[in-house]
Structure formats: structure tokens, C-alpha cells
Write a sequence for this structure.
């Protein structure tokens, strides 16, 4: 949640307070007083969002680097560990996220082409679909996690698996599995919260071709969540 | 008012130009690549490194498609793409140096270690053994430079 | 429009009926400050917060020096001493130096210099401040609930095995990182999108260039610190096996992670200091800055090359010989852009009509002290030399010359430079000069001696030492008192000015950048109209020194 909250702080929503500076031009209700034009405001928000995404990439990047080093250190344990992951479920989740990315970009398309409410239905439908696929992802994740919990395939000192294929240091693989998918999962949850917020505001009719910044920004965030999973899937589920 | 609305509409127009069908094609390519990457993982390409490289290459193609089309970097202001690319560059620096160091350093515990799980990595953790991994690299290089 | 720039005094007339940001009748009371999105008020709030942190960190520094008056245990046990230097380091780095210039002075001055009404994301700015406060509260909590004795670097394996409040402290660092990231994101977007009409990249004041370069580092490096702290907490709590060698982890990897942030963080600290110096020197030399583009681009160069040198903190840590050699080479490279700046500043001062007001005194101190700090950094970047000097007082003296002699001196210079603008009041110039002299003398007494001790083998982070070091240690401790006295006088002088009348002219130093074109203190929306840019900054052909300048 906190991630999505951070993102929302960059967005320009309804900060139109009474610092009446008397601009020569007409005021859009979501136009902030310190920007000269809506375009300038949109561009600034977009730069802010991309910078935020940069920090997200580097945050996950640390885990990827740790994974890379530890994988080369404990190759056997990592290979043994990944056999306990079901690649079919992983692939299913990949499809869920890819499709949700598509519906998200459709929502952005609808919002940016929404004139006099003619694309509002498309916008809301696509946001709902995105939310649905994200929910599907979390449900699959829930089944995967509970399976690991049942087998004792847990991070660090909680690792208690003693099956015949147990390899020393297998717990390191599951430490990374849970940290990486866990952090990613939190981002999915945060994204779901943000999309819910978009749905509420879309129903209110706040977004149109003149102002769709929040849809655009949360869309970018959601694609990044997808993008990270694109790397997590082969790294965790498919290594040999 | 008219100028900035035009510009915003213009970017909207851009999206419109591709229409939404373009996005559908991208989605189909992405799903196809997912199938390919799963398939490739079942094949042994000679070494685990080769398999990792292939899997990461496919992932990078997928990521590029998402970034260019879904995230609109193809038509966006160059600054946003610059932020994205330089971030990846810095991540590569981080990963690269760590790997260079880790691969060229004496490992305290080889990957082939077969000892029991609850035992410490080093046979005995007396002072000398604990300090041992820290020693060889630095003095070895000092006389050379 | 040329008038706006050429004769700032023109505007003085209109100011009468504009309320300044401090006494705006529309924004009154504590609550209006706590929820403000005005970059000037946030800058001021950040200023009080970092000064408080500086005071706390300074008290720990004086305690550390006092314990070192005599060898053996004076009034602190070894454990207490470890906690004292850890808290000194952690508070000074994370709570004071990193936010000091960007978040306090940068927040206040940068939008003014750009001719903007505010930063790009005012509410993010407010969030940044409160996240900082939350992080600071957590840091203080960790002192109360058990203390931290790892040093500010939290090296594994010690930090994963020691008791105390390491988890709380690292969590606090994680939270403070967000504050820093928010500031960075905000500043980059502001510089890109909120420049006044006509202000191209090479019409930016050099302070803005420095803050911009700093923001790049804040955005690109700080997330890695965040994940490092998370991994450390995980290792402590769940033994995940990444850093703890006993369960197959790699303690050296922690150092890679930590320094991937913390070396660039050194540039987060020094670049804003350099940025201030680049403002003060042309103003008090009454001269166009020499090599504007080189100074501007060298800031970005330092920011980028600064990412490639972190391994020089690890020459004796068991890093591979190959990596150490590469890092040593790259370390020498980063000296080049720093040198470019120093030479350009000196060239600016050459044959100029210099007025030695307090800010300029701090700036000249900076040139000397940062010169020493930077050059000794090159010693330490040399692989073979570092093997001998690593973890000695030589290193301690080196980074204090950079951080205290560089950043803090520049911060003090910046405070004296912009104090009249921020609060509309002049301080006592004579007292300020005396304080500056005491700071300079005290600082050198404290830390020059530590170069000698370090080169003779005095290791850092010990509460006791061999008898032979006692004279130097005592001299260093006396120096810390002089330094403390100087800082105290400067603080009393600046704070005392706040009780006086609003007597500062709009442009007391004859500065050419935009913040001097508005009234002192600035009005709530910064400028009565939209300023426009027609000349490069520091181009004194087009600027008259106002009649009421000091």
C-alpha cells in the first residue's frame, strides 16, 4: 500500500486551493497554481513518476543482485529449490499480469480519448478487468504460499523441509523466493488499491482527454509491476 | 487554454493513431514469448549459464515491449526514457562490480559443500579461520602496484 | 523585462503591500506551518530540524573527544564509547549532513533561483519532511531502547550478531531514505519543468546545478540503501543467509550493498556544499564566474563517476584483487571534476575586487579545508597506501575535512549568505567573523592532529590508546572545544538576529541570481510577477550593485 501511496503524492489531484493568482487563461479544476499550463503539470508529474519507478527498479535491483551472487554461490541448492516451485502456476500468473497490463493500457487509452464521457464505460470496464486479473494473481500466489508453508519450505531459520531431495543451503533459495515475490506481492496489493481509487474517480467522471494524469501514472506503475514479474518468473521458476 | 489542450489531445491522438488493436498484438506477442521461455527452459542448451542467458534475453525482449508500447516510451518525451535507461545502466554497474568481485574472490564455502545444514560454513570458527577469507586478496595485490 | 534583472531595486517599491511568507495573514498559527506546502516554510522547518540534529550529533562528538583526553577509561566504558561514536556518525550523516543543504537551503532557495512559485510536488515535499521527522524519532528511540554500537556503517557480521537496537536504527535509516528520495524526485522534476521563461540549462545558477546533480544521486542510490537495510533486518530476524558467513552468506556483499549507496552519499553531502561555494565566490568577487559550463558539468560528472568508486572502502575487506584495482583507478578519476571546480573558483577570485564578508570567509575556508580533504582522499584511493592507513585516524581526519571542512563550512557560509533573505534580518557581521575564525582554527586543531596520529598508526573507534598519542589527542580535544565555541557563537549570533527588526535589504550582497530580485523575506508566492531571464547568471555587465547593499 505504501508504494501506491507514495505514487499518489506525486499526482496532481484536486489541489486547486484558493491561491488566486488570476491567470489569464481558463482554470481546469485540477490545475495547480504553481504550474503555468496543464501540459507543464502533466509533464512534471510524468517525470516524477518515472523517477519513482527508477527508485523501484533499484529497490528490486538490490534483491536481484543478491539473488545473482547467492545463486552462483549455492547453485545446487537453488536448482533443487526451484523444483519445488510449480512453473505452471508461475506461467499462469505471468499470463494474468500480462493481460492485466493490456487492460491497464486500454484504460489509459480510454481515459485519454474520453471526450464528453464517450469512453467512460470502456475506462471503467478495463480498470475493473485489471483489478480482477490482479486479484487472480494474488489468489494463485496464496495457493503457492500455503503449499510452501505446508512443506516447511520457508525462508531462513523457519526452513524445516527434510524431504529426500533436501540440499544444504536450500533455505537461501526460499529466503530469496519469499523476499522477491513478497515485495512484488506488496506492490501488486498497492497497485490494486490504486486501481480501486481510479475506479472510484472514473465513476465520478473526473478523467477526460484534458486530464487523465492519475490513470497514466498508475498505469506506468502497474506496467512496472508486470515488468518485474517478467524477470522474476524465469529466475525463480525456470532455472536449471 | 487552447494551446495546452491541443498538446494534450495530441498525445491522446498519438495513442489513438495506434488504436487499441496495436496493444492487443503486443499482448499476443508477450504471451507467445512466455510460451517460448517456458519451452526453452525444458531444453538443455549445454550449460546452466546458456539457459540463464537465453531466459534473460527473452525476458528483456518482453520487458522492452512493455516499456516501449504499454508504457509509451516509444512516443514519450525523451527525458522519461533517459531516466529509465540510466536506471538500468546503474543497476548493471551495481550487478557487474558485485559479480566481478564475487567471481574472482576465494569462496569461503564452495557450491559443492555437502556438510550438514546446521553446521557453520567453516570447520571451526576460531579467530584465524574467521579472519581467513578477509586476508588473501588485499596483501596479494599490494606489492604489484 | 530587462529591468527586472538589471535593477532589482525597481521592485522594492511594490513590496509594501505584499505580506511575506513568515507573516502571511492567510497562513497563521502552528497548524498552518505543520501542513504547509510552501517550499520556503518547509525549508525553514527542515532547517530547524537539521540544526537540532547537528546539536545532538555535536554533543556526542564532544563526548567522544572528551573520553579521548586520557588513555584508558575516563567516564565512558568501551561499550558506551562505541555507542557514542555510532550515534555521532549515524546522526550526523543521516539526520544532519544529507538533508542539511538540499532539504533546508535547497528547498528554500532553489525554486526562487528558478523563478518558480514552488517545487513541482509541494505535497510530496511536505511528506518528505514528516517522513524525516518519523525517521528521526525512530533513531532517537533506538538510543533509548538499547543503543547501537556498530558504527554508522552497520558492517556484518557484527551488526547481525550484536544486541541493542540495531534493527530500530536500520529501520530509521530505511525511513530516512524515503525522505531523501522524495526530495530528490521533487528537485529533478522542478529543475526540468519549472524554470522561468528564458532560463535554459546554461542559465541555471550553479547552486541549482549542484542540487540537481545531488538529486540524481539521491534518486539512484538511496533505494539500494533501503533494500540493504531490509536485508540486514531480515538477516537479523530470520537468518536468511545472505550476509552471515556462518550460514553460507557473504559479509563482503553487505559492504558492496552499503557502499553502493554510501559512497555516492558522500557526494550527496559534498556536491551541495560545492554548489553554495559556486554562488558565494562570484557574488563576493563581483565577477563573472570562471568556467561556468565546466563547473556545472563537473557536478554531474562527480555524481556519475561517484557511482563507480564504492569499492575503495573495501580494499582491506577481502574484496578480490581485480575489483580493488579497478576501484582504485576509478577513484583517481573522480578527483578530476573536483579539481576543475577548485581551479575555476580560484580563477574567479584572481584579480577580483573581493569583499571578505562572513559568507566569503567561509568560502575561502572551504577552499583550503576541502583541498586538504580531497587530496588526502587521493592518498587513500591508492591501493598500497590505503592498506596502511585503512581504519586509522588518517581516514577519520580525511572524511572530516571533506564533510565538516567541506560540507558543514559551506552550509555555514550558505546560512550566512541567505539568512537575510530567509528571515529578512541582518546578523552582527563582526561577531559572525569571529565565530568563523574560531570554527576554522578549532577545526584544524581538532583534525589536523588526527592526520599525524593516523599516519603513526592510531586506529579509529577505540576508547583508549597508547600513551605516546596522548599529547596529540589532548590537543585535538582542546580543538574540539574551540570548534564548539565557534559554532555556538555563530548560532547565538544568527538566532539573536531573529529578535531584531526586519532590517535586511532585498539584495544585501549585490547577488545576481533571481532570489535576490524578490523582497526579503520573500512573499508567499515568491515573486510579484513572473520573472524572465535575459542574461546569464553572474554576468556583472548587466547587474548594478544596489545602493543599500552591505
Amino acid at each position: 500500500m505504501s508504494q501506491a501511496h507514495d505514487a499518489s503524492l506525486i499526482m496532481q489531484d484536486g489541489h486547486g486551493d484558493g491561491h488566486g493568482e488570476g491567470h489569464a487563461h481558463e482554470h481546469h479544476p485540477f490545475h495547480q497554481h504553481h504550474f503555468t499550463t496543464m501540459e507543464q503539470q502533466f509533464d512534471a508529474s510524468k517525470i516524477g513518476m518515472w523517477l519513482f519507478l527508477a527508485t523501484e527498479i533499484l529497490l528490486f535491483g538490490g534483491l536481484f543482485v543478491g539473488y545473482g551472487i547467492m545463486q552462483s554461490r549455492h547453485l545446487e541448492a537453488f536448482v533443487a529449490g526451484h523444483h519445488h516451485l510449480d512453473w505452471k502456476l508461475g506461467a499462469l500468473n505471468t499470463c494474468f499480469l500480462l493481460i492485466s497490463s493490456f487492460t491497464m493500457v486500454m484504460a489509459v487509452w480510454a481515459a485519454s480519448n474520453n471526450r464528453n464521457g464517450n469512453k467512460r464505460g470502456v475506462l471503467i470496464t478495463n480498470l475493473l478487468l485489471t483489478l480482477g486479473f490482479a486479484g487472480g494473481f494474488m489468489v494463485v500466489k496464496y495457493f503457492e504460499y500455503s503449499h510452501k508453508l505446508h512443506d516447511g519450505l520457508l525462508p531462513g531459520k523457519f526452513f524445516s523441509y527434510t524431504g529426500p531431495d533436501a540440499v544444504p543451503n536450500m533455505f537461501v533459495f526460499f529466503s530469496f523466493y519469499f523476499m522477491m515475490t513478497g515485495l512484488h506481492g506488496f506492490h501488486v496489493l498497492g497497485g490494486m488499491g490504486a486501481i480501486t481509487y481510479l475506479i472510484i474517480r472514473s465513476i465520478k467522471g473526473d478523467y477526460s482527454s484534458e486530464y487523465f494524469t492519475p490513470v497514466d501514472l498508475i498505469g506506468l506503475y502497474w506496467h512496472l509491476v508486470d515488468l518485474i514479474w517478467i524477470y522474476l518468473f524465469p529466475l525463480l521458476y525456470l532455472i536449471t | 487554454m487552447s494551446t495546452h489542450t491541443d498538446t494534450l489531445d495530441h498525445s491522446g491522438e498519438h495513442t489513438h493513431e495506434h488504436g487499441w488493436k496495436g496493444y492487443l498484438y503486443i499482448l499476443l506477442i508477450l504471451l507467445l514469448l512466455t510460451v517460448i521461455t517456458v519451452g526453452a527452459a525444458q531444453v538443455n542448451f549445454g550449460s546452466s549459464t546458456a539457459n540463464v542467458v537465453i531466459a534473460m534475453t527473452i525476458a528483456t525482449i518482453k520487458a522492452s515491449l512493455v516499456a516501449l508500447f504499454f508504457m509509451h516510451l516509444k512516443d514519450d518525451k525523451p527525458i522519461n526514457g533517459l531516466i529509465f535507461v540510466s536506471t538500468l545502466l546503474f543497476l548493471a554497474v551495481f550487478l557487474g562490480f558485485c559479480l566481478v568481485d564475487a567471481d574472482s574472490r576465494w569462496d569461503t564455502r564452495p557450491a559443492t559443500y555437502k556438510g550438514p545444514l546446521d553446521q557453520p560454513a567453516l570447520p571451526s570458527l576460531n579467530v584465524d579461520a574467521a579472519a581467513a577469507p578477509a586476508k588473501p586478496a588485499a596483501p596479494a595485490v599490494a606489492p604489484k602496484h | 523585462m530587462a529591468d527586472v534583472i538589471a535593477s532589482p531595486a525597481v521592485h522594492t517599491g511594490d513590496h509594501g503591500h505584499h505580506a511575506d511568507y513568515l507573516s502571511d495573514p492567510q497562513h497563521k498559527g502552528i497548524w498552518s506551518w505543520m501542513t504547509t506546502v510552501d517550499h520556503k516554510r518547509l525549508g525553514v522547518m527542515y532547517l530547524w530540524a537539521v540544526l537540532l540534529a547537528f546539536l545532538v550529533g555535536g554533543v556526542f562528538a564532544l563526548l567522544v573527544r572528551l573520553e579521548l583526553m586520557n588513555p584508558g577509561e575516563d567516564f565512558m566504558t568501551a561499550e558506551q564509547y562505541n555507542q557514542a561514536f555510532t550515534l555521532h556518525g549515524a546522526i550526523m550523516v543521516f539526520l544532519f549532513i544529507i538533508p542539511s543543504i538540499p532539504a533546508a537551503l535547497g528547498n528554500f532557495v532553489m525554486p526562487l533561483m528558478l523563478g518558480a512559485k514552488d517545487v513541482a510536488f509541494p505535497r510530496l515535499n511536505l511528506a518528505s519532511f514528516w517522513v524525516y521527522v518519523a525517521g528521526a524519532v525512530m533513531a532517537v528511540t533506538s538510543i533509548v531502547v538499547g543503543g547501537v554500537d556498530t558504527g554508522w556503517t552497520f558492517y556484518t557480521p557484527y551488526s547481525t550478531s550484536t544486541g541493542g537496537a540495531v534493527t530500530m536504527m536500520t529501520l530509521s535509516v530505511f525511513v530516512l531514505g524515503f525522505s531523501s528520495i522524495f526530495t530528490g524526485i521533487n528537485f529533478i522534476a522542478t529543475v526540468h519543468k519549472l524554470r522561468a521563461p528564458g532560463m535554459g540549462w546554461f542559465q541555471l545558477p550553479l547552486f541549482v546545478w549542484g542540487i540537481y546533480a545531488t538529486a540524481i544521486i539521491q534518486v539512484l542510490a538511496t533505494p539500494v540503501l533501503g533494500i540493504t537495510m531490509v536485508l540486514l533486518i531480515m538477516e537479523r530476524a530470520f537468518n536468511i543467509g545472505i550476509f552471515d558467513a556462518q550460514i553460507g552468506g557473504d559479509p563482503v556483499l553487505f559492504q558492496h550493498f552499503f557502499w553502493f549507496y554510501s559512497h555516492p552519499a558522500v557526494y550527496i553531502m559534498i556536491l551541495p556544499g560545492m554548489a553554495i561555494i559556486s554562488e558565494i565566490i562570484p557574488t563576493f568577487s563581483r565577477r563573472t564566474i570562471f568556467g561556468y559550463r565546466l563547473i556545472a558539468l563537473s557536478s554531474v560528472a562527480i555524481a556519475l563517476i561517484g557511482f563507480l568508486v564504492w569499492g575503495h572502502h573495501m580494499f582491506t575487506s577481502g574484496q578480490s584483487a581485480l575489483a580493488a584495482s579497478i576501484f582504485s583507478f576509478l577513484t583517481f578519476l573522480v578527483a578530476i571534476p573536483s579539481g576543475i571546480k577548485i581551479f575555476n573558483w580560484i580563477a574567479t577570485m584572481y584579480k577580483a575586487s573581493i569583499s571578505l564578508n562572513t559568507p566569503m570567509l567561509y568560502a575561502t575556508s572551504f577552499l583550503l579545508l576541502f583541498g586538504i580533504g580531497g587530496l588526502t582522499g587521493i592518498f587513500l584511493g591508492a591501493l598500497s597506501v590505503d592498506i596502511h592507513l585503512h581504519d586509522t585516524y588518517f581516514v577519520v581526519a580525511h572524511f572530516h575535512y571533506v564533510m565538516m571542512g567541506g560540507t558543514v563550512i559551506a552550509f555555514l557560509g550558505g546560512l550566512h549568505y541567505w539568512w537575510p533573505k530567509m528571515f529578512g534580518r541582518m546578523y552582527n557581521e563582526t561577531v559572525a567573523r569571529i565565530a568563523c575564525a574560531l570554527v576554522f582554527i578549532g577545526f584544524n586543531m581538532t583534525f589536523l592532529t588526527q592526520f599525524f596520529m593516523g599516519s603513526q598508526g592510531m586506529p579509529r573507534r577505540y576508547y583508549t590508546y597508547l600513551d605516546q598519542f596522548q599529547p596529540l589527542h589532548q590537543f585535538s580535544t582542546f580543538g574540539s572545544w574551540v570548534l564548539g565555541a565557534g559554532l555556538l557563537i555563530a548560532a547565538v549570533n544568527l538566532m539573536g538576529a531573529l529578535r531584531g527588526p526586519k532590517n535586511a535589504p532585498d539584495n544585501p550582497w549585490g547577488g545576481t541570481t533571481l532570489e535576490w530580485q524578490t523582497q526579503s523575506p520573500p512573499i508567499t508566492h515568491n515573486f510579484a510577477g513572473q520573472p524572465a531571464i535575459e542574461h546569464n547568471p553572474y554576468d556583472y555587465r548587466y547587474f548594478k550593485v544596489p545602493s543599500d547593499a552591505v
User: Anything to note?
Assistant: Residues 57 and 228 of chain A are 8 Å apart (CA to CA). Residues 1-8, 11-24 of chain A have pLDDT under 50 and may be disordered. Chain A touches chain C through 46 residues (CB under 8 Å). Chain A has one domain: 33-237.
